[in-house]
Amino acid sequence: QQQVKQSPQSLIVQKGGISIINCAYENTAFDYFPWYQQFPGKGPALLIAIRPDVSEKKEGRFTISFNKSAKQFSLHIMDSQPGDSATYFCAASRAGGYNKLIFGAGTRLAVHP
Amino acid sequence: GAVVSQHPSWVICKSGTSVKIECRSLDFQATTMFWYRQFPKQSLMLMATSNEGSKATYEQGVEKDKFLINHASLTLSTLTVTSAHPEDSSFYICSARDGGTPTPYGYTFGSGTRLTVV
User: Of A75, A105, B23, B101, which residue has the fewest beta carbons closer than 10 angstroms?
Assistant: First the structure.
């Protein structure tokens, strides 16, 4: 119940295309769903996050779509650029306790020029 | 924005020695800090959670005597890898939660420490 399943494991997109990464969770107590971007040798950086009371959140080229009934959420990167090439992690957390983040397995995105 | 400074960024040590990694919140008070371990091409694995002034809570399977965590102040947490062995070689990352930000938000990650035990 604590798992967050992420797919695909790797993704290749042409410059200007749309990158889509999907995540699914089981624990309905989760109420915070962030996406992190990680470059090699660096710590993860928060990209965008959503709460379950909204179905979509957009920040620049990055959009989170959230489907509460299906317990799924996804990251869409519009107009993908070579600089977006990185590993992306979805995560989930719930209120109470120590609020630890549960991470997905990660998606390695390569954007080809 | 919130900044977490982690040092050193990389360290090489001899097998059997101990290594200390520091994690500092620079512009906020970190009531809770998390320590993660990440192997190449894998996800972040939570090792332990520490609250300022209290003992750390370790995840199942993490040796508390090997990975000593001290969270002595609201801005500093340290991870000491004791009697390091080559299998402890990994990328260690800390994360701090801003006590002034509503739960469960406000996670900020450090830049990570690459530990190589030879």
Answer: B101
